[in-house]
Amino acid sequence: MTTAVETQLKNLDKGDHTLRNQIIAEYLPYVNRIVNRIATHLPPTVEIDDLVNVGIIGLIQAIERYDPSRDNKFMTYAVFRIKGAVLSELRSRDFLGRTTRKKIRSLEKAYLKLEQKLGREAKDEEVARELDMNLDQFYQVKRMSSISFVSFEEIGYATKEGKENFISQLLSPGDSHDALSMTTVKEIKNALAEHIEKLPEKEKLVVSMYYSDEMTMKEIGKVLDITESRVSQIHSQAVIRLRAKLRKDGLIEQ
Predict the structure, then answer these.
(1) Which of 145, 153, 164, 243 lies 20 to 30 A from 185 at CA?
(2) Which residues of 118-156 are buried (b: 16+ CB within 10 A; e: fewer)?
(3) Where are the domains of the chain?
């Protein structure tokens, strides 16, 4: 079903700034919502307004590049572009830094190692001890780990063309002639579906509500009757676990 916005975009003259500005105004609340969801995992030193501006640029790119003839909704395409623009901005600032990224990778490996050794879920205290961290250091790294689920670079798409092909395949499955992108998307989707099913029940619920239902941490907390901080911890735990599994499967870089 074609929406009013998709019909407008189909007939949009690139020089029609009035219509473009109307669409931007209509979708601005989604930009704010997406940025606020991402900002949940960021320290207060990060300027939210800067990220909103970057998200708006992503929205403008979505308006300019959206192809109504493809089998995907503008909303889906716009959300993907907005998220991508914000996460790219954070990466360009090297927000995490090499040291933190190394700690995150060590964290993922420690969880896998301990769970295989113990035959059960590893407790935070056990993982912190394995990494020779105190709990404050451990929780800081754990929170940072969930800023970006998987980056393009980790699955082998470092060039602009490669990223565009991958985005195209994600949004319009079967509409790409890039066999590598098609295979990668299918493998990651299948692996994620399998690993999400094996998550502890509460982690599975949080992942589903956060990524499928697009709920905020605060909204999830109200549904599950737990604090927003606890939701964030559960989400981080699930992301660490899933990233570690994808790394073990060879679907993201070791």
Answers:
(1) 145
(2) eeeebeeebbbebbebeeeebbebbbbbbbbbbebebbe
(3) 4-92, 97-248
Report the alpha-carbon distance of residue 240 to residue 237 in Å, rounded. Answer: 5
Structure confidence by residue, pLDDT tens digits, 207-231: 888 878 878 888 999 999 999 888 9
Alpha-helical segments (H) within the chain: 4-10, 17-39, 48-65, 74-92, 97-118, 124-130, 135-144, 160-171, 179-197, 201-207, 217-224, 228-248
- CA gyration radius for the chain? 19
Kindly provide the b/e burial profile for residues 169-189, where b requires at least 16 CB atoms within 10 angstroms of the residue's own CB. bbbbeeebebeebbebbeebe
Nearest residue to 114 via CA among 104, 99, 100, 124? 124
For every residue of 98-143, DSSP letters joined together read HHHHHHHHHHHHHHHHHHHHHSSPPPHHHHHHHTT--HHHHHHHHH
Q: How far apart are CA 24 and CA 4, in angstroms?
A: 14
Global pTM?
Answer: 0.64
Question: What class does CATH assign to 4-92?
Answer: mainly alpha
Tokens 């559960």: give the residue: 234
Measured CA to CA, the distance from residue 224 to residue 216 in angstroms comes to 12
- 54 φ/ψ angles, rounded to the nearest 5 degrees: -65, -40
Closest to 57 (Cα-Cα) out of 30, 82, 28: 82
Return d(Cα 96, Cα 110) in angstroms, integer. 19
Q: What pLDDT band is residue 147 in, cutting at 50, 70 and 90? A: low
Euclidean distance between CA atoms 36 and 214, whole angstroms = 12
